[in-house]
Amino acid sequence: MSDHTGHGSSMWESDGFKPPRLPKSAPRVRLGILSGPGKGQTVELTRCVSVIGSRRGCKLQLKSADISAVHAAIVNTADEVYLRDLVSSTGTYLNDLKAQFEKLEDGDTIRISDWELRVHISAYTLDTLSDLPHVSLEPGADAFGVEVNGSGEMTRLQRPVGLVGRRQGCDVVINDSKVSRAHMLLFNYSGQPVFFDLLSNNGVVMEGERRAFANLHSGDRLTVGSVSMRMILPGVGRRPPQSTPTSNGTSRSKTPANPPKSSFASNSGTGTIIQPLEDDASDRVDIRAAEVDR
User: Fold this and answer.
1) Rounded Cα distance, 2 and 6, in Å
2) Per residue in 209-233, pLDDT tens?
3) CB 3.0 to 4.6 Å from 179: which of 95, 166, 191, 196, for a disulfide?
4) Are the C-beta atoms of 68 and 56 separated by less than 8 Å?
5) Cβ of 217: how many Cβ atoms within 10 Å?
6) Distance in angstroms between the alpha carbons of the first and the last residue of the chain
7) What is the DSSP string of 82-129?
8) C-alpha to C-alpha distance for 289 and 294, rounded to whole angstroms
9) Rounded Cα gap, residues 76 and 22, in angstroms
10) 223-275: per-residue pLDDT in tens?
11) Element spanning 14, H or E
12) Angstrom distance (rounded) from CA 259 to CA 228
């Protein structure tokens, strides 16, 4: 199983950060539970990333010995919907075929252990001009590249949703005990490159702050465990310098702090989420399998 445990604290749990809810213009996604505990329930996926797993904090928490702590993720980019297996121990199946990464279509069936889930995807109908999607003037990333520890070598992600973690099968594999097996996702959300922390124990630190979800710029440095990652994003500019007021009322540019050492990546870290949106435990679904205590 994964090294994410229900006993450790994660950023979502300790600091109360929630992944952002989707804009109205994004595809609407629901999961119908066809078989397994909770059969007959329908789950609305309102976040850009919906994690399925056994750990507290997952959108769909399936409590079974066969379910990894973070088992799979459904990623809604506000344009397309994808399924990503999070290097789980027992696998994720799409339409009865083992899947690592696939685009989801309406009517698809996902099987995870004893659970069979029907995917319902529908386009949102725009009622008013205010429902039109936000148009960003910032370009999205043409591709994601990652340089690890100043090696001078770039790892280019081959999928629209990239997985970073310790376990073989991740798109970027980091051999560090402080890195979770499936640690974070990299993808374009609403046309903007972002990262998403997968309920990891030690989190992600960007420019000196621990964060759970944030927009990315070319040159941004992320600290994961004791490893520094520099983002290489063709088509995306560098992060603008921050301005701070001076004693005479003018402002000056402030260079972001260097990434801290790995000792900073602890559960006492604080940070800000790019799009803080109201959410609570009622948004999550907790299902316990009969065999969990066997």
Assistant:
1) 11
2) 899 999 999 999 999 999 999 999 9
3) 166
4) no
5) 18
6) 16
7) EEEE-S-SS--EETTEE-SEEE--TT-EEEETTEEEEEEEEPPPP-SG
8) 10
9) 8
10) 999 999 999 998 787 887 765 555 565 555 554 444 333 222 222 232 222 22
11) helix 11-15
12) 8
Bridge-based pairing state of the strands 285-288 and 60-63:
parallel
Count Cβ atoms below 10 Å from residue 34 Cβ, excluding itself. 14
**Residues with Cβ < 8 Å from 285, sequence gap 6 or more?**
38, 41, 43, 59, 60, 61
* Residue 135 β-bridge partners: none
Contact 57, 199 (CB under 8 A): yes
- Decide: 226 and 176 in contact? Cβ < 8 Å: yes
**Residue pair 272/211 in contact by the 8 Å Cβ criterion:** yes
Return the bridge partners of 57, or none. Answer: none
Look at strands 28-35 and 42-45 and give their pairing: antiparallel
Q: In angstroms, rounded to a whole number, what is the distance separating the alpha carbons of residues 99 and 85?
A: 7
CB of 198 within 8 A of CB of 239? no
Q: What is the DSSP letter of 256?
A: P
